[in-house]
Amino acid sequence: MNDAPPAPALFGRAEELRGIETFLERARRRGDSLFLYGEPGVGKTRLLDAAAERASARGARVIRATGVQYMADVSYGLLAELLLPLTPGLTALDDVFRDALMAALDMRTGPVPPRLVILNACLTLLRRQAEQGPLLLVVDDLPWADSPSAVALGFVARRLAGSRVGLITAARNDERDHFQRSGLPALQVKPIDEVSSGELLRAAFPGLAPSVRHRLVTEARGNPLALLELPAALTPAQLSGVAVLPDVLPLTRHVKSVFAARVALLPPQTQEALLILAQEGTGDLRVLQRATGAEPALEHLAPAESAKLIKVDLASRQVEFRHPLVRSAVVDSAGEADLRRIHRLLAGLFTDDPERRARHLAEAASGADESVAHPLEQAAHRKLRRGDATGALAALVRAAQFSSAAGDRCRRLAQASYVAAHLTGELGTATRLLAEIRAVGPRPGGSLHSVAAAAYVLINGDGDVETAHTLLVDAIENGDHGYDASRTDLVEALHTLLMMCWFAGREDFWPPLYAAIDRLRPQPPELLLLMSRTLPDAARTSPGERRRLAALIDRQHEWREPHRLVRVHASAIYLDLLGGCRAQSWALVENGRAGGAVRSALSALLHLGLDDFAAGRWEEAERLADEGLALAEGHGYAFVTWFFHLHKALLAAVRGDPEADRWADELTRVTTARKAHGAARTAHHARALAAAGRGDWEAAYQQASLLSPAGRLAAYTSHALWVALDLVEAALRTGRTAEAEAHARAMREAGLPDLSPRLALFTLAAEALVAPDEEAPALFERAVSAAGAHHWPFDYARVQFLYGERLRRIGDVAEARSHLSTALAIFQRLKATPWANRAGAELRAAGRNHPLPVAGGTGTGSLTAQEVEIAMLAAEGLTNKQIGERLYLSHRTVGTHLYRIFPKLGITSRAALRDALSQSGR
Fold it and tell me: Is residue 167 within a helix (H) or strand (E), and if so which, with residue range?
């Protein structure tokens, strides 16, 4: 690959294009000029192209010219290029102007007339030509224009008002020319942002590995030329992520010729100083001084600073290459021997920094060397511990390349393949690394890391969960690990096996996992032990295990490893502890967005979405589901898309959106195709909710029962806990009283109230539903009054609705209105339309024809849905701060609402709220 393909489109240029559109409109109507400026390669020419294309599309005549270095001494050379297409119009000028232009453009012999005559003749010709239609002049590389032409263009640019002539020019930052731009309209073309940089790379180089794309985005610093040229100089193996990228990225021949020529003009000592800075990478002036051993390092840098190749900041002791391609040009200009010499020098300086030392040792090495491979492997482990999965992957691949023994090479490649598949989101890279292991010799089953990586590749490709499970069990049971709990590869394989068991949803898959965990010595890792209990079978988790998990969650800020954090959060799902994991989940998402641990970010998006759904942040949940779906599809994680199909299905179900069934069907298709029947069963949750919302209780019962039959909580089916209340309600509404009572009893016997406040809410509500009329109100009251019940607004509102519905049926209409109004207010805020409609109908049955006035009502007692909810919470004794925490409002906002509520209800204190709400039918 020698030449970069042309950029397929303009990315990240919305602001600049708006400025150009404004200029073109002004020029078309009354004449105008615009000067574009920016660093080399930033995209000025592409914007000139866009201006020309848009003007031409609107009927303007477009004439282009470009300053060329070898023509810089030809007087009026660039002006002649611009005016040549207009020469037929010379006949319309008076003799003085016509002769002046013909002489200036070398169309006749004789003395050149005074410059002012030529300039006025030029302006007159342009104005006359524009009378026939708009005219746009486009001039690129203005600094290379000859001096007379540059002066003429500056003269014209200031005198276009009242014409239909536009002049748009472009030049690099800080370049001197004779174009008098002072006071003229100008537009700085800045580097594009990271998102746009990524989009440009995806369009121009669609096969780039994510980690390579992230590195290129970082190195290019938003410069489009760098974004297109840097990957064009890489090999296919480097582009795909199989081969490690060099410390300093190479340049194509074209770009090298541009920048290397400027470097070659510098004194040798300056070139040496730049080479040290380029290979060191951080721009730390103190490192340069240590390497050169003297303060005169600053003197050596002066010529490069004068040539505008670098910027020196003495306050921060930092040196920055002005253009992202200069660093590469410095390295490309040096010989191989000099490069290795500098890296050896830097490795000697960083004896107290093992990671940096390992990197420079690798760059200085010329072949297999275990003294280089071992430090690289250790550096990879340190990177992983602090959350740098992408850096760990690169270091492991390099360590494999420098490995002397085939076994060491395969072991390091296996670790790299696992990191690629399980953390960085590079399934393609993982597949290629696994193929390299096979080519070296040992079968993949010989390494637990490679088998774990193969499992993730399998389930996201054409394989299935059952095959992955078989491979893992075989590798673990026949491995030479001795069940040593300190073996990272063994623990990782067991975690992978755990997930395969959960995905498969087969009881007979679990015994090999638990047998292996029991054999670990001296004892199983705490996180593995807890996750194996809480994630698959939360109903049989003990309160003590929940406390131990809560303790891990409290300590999670101490960790940086993405996979460890994801596992803590996964363990928290069915015990409703995800709220304490949000900060770290967001950190994982941001890391993935920046090109780091993408696969971990997908899990974090799942966890945030589940917590958002339970906590009533449905708009955010929708956004995260869309982001996760796009991220999974973009990285080839076809199986992982089921995470976000579940989110979409649940959100559609509670909103009454008929798309719920389509999303549930897609979830089922993705999972069953891979024999992931445990994951597939989660679709029954969404289908049960959708059926309940439309009042189809038979369907709701059948769907909930498919997760767990009435009367027992199915083993290894934690998701059944989230539909337990749905099953009890649906059973009662379809005349299955015995089944409802049996399931409520099973919930109590399993000790669900001890596992989480949310499960306590479900259990008490289920018991209230099946209780006699004289006992039900007390159980409902305990449910809605329980600590933390408000943290789950949809569930809380459903219980309030069931409470009010029961009260109305036993004749306590006034109290029923209070609970139904609370439920309606929450449903309306959440936009849970089916449930809001049911609550409204129930309120009307309780004697209230207008359940709640619409927002903005003008009546004295008119409360909005949110005001009703705030009033109800205040009436229950909650402080403004507590109300704000539950409704995600500031305490000041809550106070403002109460200030408006009191006069609407005709009261002056919080103490009167409950009576006022009751009297108003709320």
Answer: strand 165-172
**What CA–CA distance (Å, rounded) separates 263 from 144?**
21
User: How do residues 5-24 score in pLDDT, each as one tens digit?
Assistant: 444 478 999 999 999 999 99
Q: How far apart are the first and last CA of the chain?
A: 73
Label residue 521 exposed, middle or buried (CB < 10 Å: 0-12, 13-18, 19+): exposed
Closest Cα to residue 389, out of 584, 210, 640, 260? 210
Residue holding tokens 């002769």? 99
**Count of CB atoms situated within 10 Å of the CB of 53:** 11
Rounded distance between C-alpha atoms, residue 774 and residue 261, angstroms: 93
Please tell me the distance from the alpha carbon of residue 472 to that of residue 112, in angstroms, as a whole number. 88
DSSP 526-587: HHHHHHHHHTT-GGG--HHHHHHHHHHHHHGGG---HHHHHHHHHHHGGGT-GGGGHHHHHH
Output the six-digit token pair for 854.
């619409």
- pLDDT (mean) for 539-551: 96
Contact call for residues 739 and 731 (beta carbons, < 8 A): yes
DSSP state of 113: P
How many CB atoms sit inside 10 A of residue 766's CB? 31
Determine the angle formed by the axes of helices 324-333 and 253-264, rounding to 10 degrees: 80
Q: Report the C-alpha gap between 260 and 418 in whole angstroms.
A: 40
Q: Which secondary structure element, helix H or strand E, spans residue 103, and what is its range?
A: helix 95-104
CA dihedral 559, 564, 568, 569 (to 10 degrees): 100
pLDDT tens sequence across 457-469: 999 998 999 999 9
Cβ–Cβ under 8 Å, residues 529 and 514 = no
CA atoms within 13 A on the CB side of 186: 14
Measure the CA–CA gap between 687 and 696, rounded to whole angstroms: 11
Q: What is the mean pLDDT of residues 821-838?
A: 94
User: H or E stretch including 418?
Assistant: helix 406-419
Alpha-carbon dihedral sign for residues 416, 418, 420, 422:
negative
Cis peptide before 210 (omega within 30 of 0): no
pLDDT per position as a tens digit, 635-679:
899 999 999 999 999 999 999 999 999 999 999 999 999 999 999
**DSSP secondary structure, 825-873, as one string:** HHHHHHT-HHHHHHHHHHHHHTT-SSSSPPTT--STT---HHHHHHHHH
Q: What residues contact residue 184 under an 8 Å CB cut-off, 6+ apart? A: 33, 34, 35, 154, 157, 158
Q: What is the pTM of this model?
A: 0.78
CA-CA-CA-CA torsion sign (387, 390, 393, 399): negative
Report CA-CA distances (Å) from 842 to 172, 817, 848, 850. 71, 9, 9, 11
d(C-alpha 20, C-alpha 53), whole Å: 12
CB 694 within 8 A of CB 834: yes
Q: Please, are residues 630 and 622 in contact by the beta-carbon 8 Å criterion? A: no
Sign of the dihedral through C-alpha 109, 115, 116, 118: positive
Q: Mapping DSSP to helix (H, G, I), strand (E, B) and coil, where does residue 187 land?
A: strand
* Cα–Cα distance measured from residue 757 to residue 441, given in angstroms and rounded to the nearest whole number: 54
Q: What angle do CA 851, 855, 861 make, to 5 degrees?
A: 60
Return d(Cα 392, Cα 382) in angstroms, integer: 8
| Residue whose C-alpha is closest to residue 255's, from 276, 217, 227 | 227
Alpha carbons within 13 angstroms on the beta-carbon side of residue 459 total: 33
What's CA 361's distance to the chain center, in Å? 34
The CA distances from residue 739 to 697, 713, 719, 742, in Å, are 14, 13, 19, 5
- Tokens for 87, please give them: 């020469």
- Is residue 922 scored above 60 in pLDDT? no
Which has the closest alpha carbon to 708: 671, 747, 675? 747
- The answer to whether the CB of 725 falls within 8 A of the CB of 713 is no
- Spatial separation of the C-alpha atoms in residues 388 and 820, rounded to whole Å: 51
What 8-state DSSP symbol labels residue 138? E
Question: Is the Cβ–Cβ distance between 713 and 750 less than 8 Å?
Answer: yes
